[in-house]
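Work Package 4 report. The design task specified in the project plan requires that, given a folded chain encoded as structure tokens, an amino acid be chosen for each position. We show below one input record used in the internal validation round.
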């Protein structure tokens, strides 16, 4: 009996991949004769010759493991871990940390809730055995004794960090990290300071500067110099984020205390303006996802996620995290997950985004050095405020020297032409002929590229190779398609 994600059948001993055989590339299709399609509008993608950021790989967070993970058999748990960390080649695990449950008062500390969610059930250990190399802490909320008094009776303002409590806040985070390591042996590689601190002004930008400095000092005093601080983890790349970076840069100690800049990609992702502001620091995109219902085969949600990945990789991102990797099924909110599972009987179901993440993670392994790519159609191709670009692309060179290309077509039948400046969607469905120009390859010999084209609910289809001549190659791409290329 073979392992099947769609039927819930599992082997006692796992094959090389936990994917069903039907989801792997098989026979090449007919050649894509894109130069013979002059009727298609052309978009030219121009790749700058200067290497930019070194990509460190994909990651995700896991939630509510205390409620369900311990109910699974060892083989079922192993299935979940292998499909995420091995089949998708994800490397980084984001761990949610509820501050009020750990430090309900200035003197009380309680590690039990976090241990129950991630440690005692074996989740962290099993994830590391399956391939996780980075544990990132995601602090969320804050205890009442650190919150600002709420004279207006508003729940929103009640989330705000009290002025003058920045050092105490940093001490609590450092105390938890040290407590976790001493009592469980688990070492964190990185920590944020607060999930989306700009949400209802949980932590004001000027307070973020103070918290970063206090946390670095508190970690160092405890011998935790290896724990990197990334901040601020705002919900979007917007002017608030850029202003916060400006404050951090003006304080030399705060800037030096940061190992990386961080934010999320929802309405607004990484931009060239952000890339210019990083000043050599890594950029961690630590959360992207969607909400609401989703069923397998939803190509629109899948191409939206793939386009955000390509956007961010093209604009300086070094780490890229999806919101939730796998979680028990919830028909009202399955869109947050890459995979869902049911308990009785155990059944694991991938959404369309799973197959596109698989295609992207195998195209862009850790160590890929990206170049900046610009489009004749949409300029910098930025997933930002307002209408989204039609074509997204990211191009880089893998550690083995091969060239890697990802292109998505973010046009869809449900999109309409609109003059509304607040339109946050894209454009009507349109196929394009893509002309890719890589300046670094103009003087070299012809170079063949393997090509994969996304398919519904299966891995990308291997198609006949295409050849780059004097730095130029061409191919067509249909609406909602993801195409990835790899040079031989």
């Amino acid at each position: 009996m073979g392992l099947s994600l769609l039927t819930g059948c599992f082997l006692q001993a796992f094959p090389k991949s936990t994917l069903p055989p039907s989801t792997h590339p098989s026979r090449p299709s007919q050649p894509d004769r894109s130069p013979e399609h002059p009727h298609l509008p052309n978009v030219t993608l121009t790749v700058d010759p200067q290497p930019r950021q070194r990509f460190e790989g994909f990651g995700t967070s896991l939630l509510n493991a205390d409620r369900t993970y311990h109910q699974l058999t060892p083989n079922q748990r192993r299935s979940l871990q292998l499909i995420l960390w091995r089949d998708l080649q994800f490397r980084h695990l984001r761990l949610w940390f509820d501050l009020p449950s750990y430090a309900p008062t200035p003197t009380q500390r309680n590690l039990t809730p976090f241990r129950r969610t991630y440690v005692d059930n074996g989740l962290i250990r099993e994830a590391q055995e399956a391939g996780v190399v980075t544990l990132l802490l995601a602090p969320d909320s804050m205890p009442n004794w650190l919150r600002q008094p709420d004279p207006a009776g508003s729940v929103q303002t009640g989330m705000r960090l009290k002025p003058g409590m920045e050092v105490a806040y940093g001490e609590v985070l450092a105390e938890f990290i040290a407590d976790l390591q001493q009592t469980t042996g688990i070492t964190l590689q990185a920590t944020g300071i607060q999930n989306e601190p700009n949400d209802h002004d949980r932590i004001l930008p000027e307070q973020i500067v103070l918290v970063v400095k206090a946390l670095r000092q508190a970690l160092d005093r405890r011998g935790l110099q290896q724990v990197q601080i990334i901040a601020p983890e705002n919900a979007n790349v917007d002017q608030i984020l850029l202003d916060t970076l400006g404050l951090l840069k003006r304080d030399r100690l705060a800037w030096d205390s940061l190992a990386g800049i961080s934010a999320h990609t929802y309405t607004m992702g990484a931009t060239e303006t952000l890339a210019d502001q990083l000043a050599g620091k890594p950029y961690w995109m630590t959360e992207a996802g969607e909400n609401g219902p989703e069923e397998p085969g939803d190509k629109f949600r899948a191409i939206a996620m793939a386009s955000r990945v390509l956007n961010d990789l093209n604009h300086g991102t070094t780490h890229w995290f999806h919101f939730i990797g796998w979680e028990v099924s919830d028909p009202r909110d399955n869109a947050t997950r890459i995979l869902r599972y049911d308990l009785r009987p155990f059944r694991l179901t991938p959404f369309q985004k799973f197959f596109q993440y698989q295609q992207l993670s195998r195209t862009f392994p850790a160590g890929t050095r990206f170049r900046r790519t610009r489009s004749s159609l949409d300029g910098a191709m930025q997933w930002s405020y307002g209408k989204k670009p039609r074509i997204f692309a990211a191009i880089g060179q893998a550690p083995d020297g091969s060239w890697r290309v990802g292109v998505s077509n973010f046009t869809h039948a449900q999109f309409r032409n609109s003059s509304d400046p607040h339109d946050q969607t894209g454009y009507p469905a349109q196929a394009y002929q893509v002309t890719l120009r890589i300046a670094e390859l103009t003087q070299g010999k012809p170079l063949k590229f393997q090509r994969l084209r996304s398919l519904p609910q299966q891995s990308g289809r291997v198609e006949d190779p295409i050849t780059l001549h004097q730095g130029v190659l061409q191919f067509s791409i249909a609406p909602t398609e993801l195409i990835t290329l790899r040079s031989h």
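The chain is about 25% helix and 25% strand. Validation will be extended to a larger panel in the next phase.
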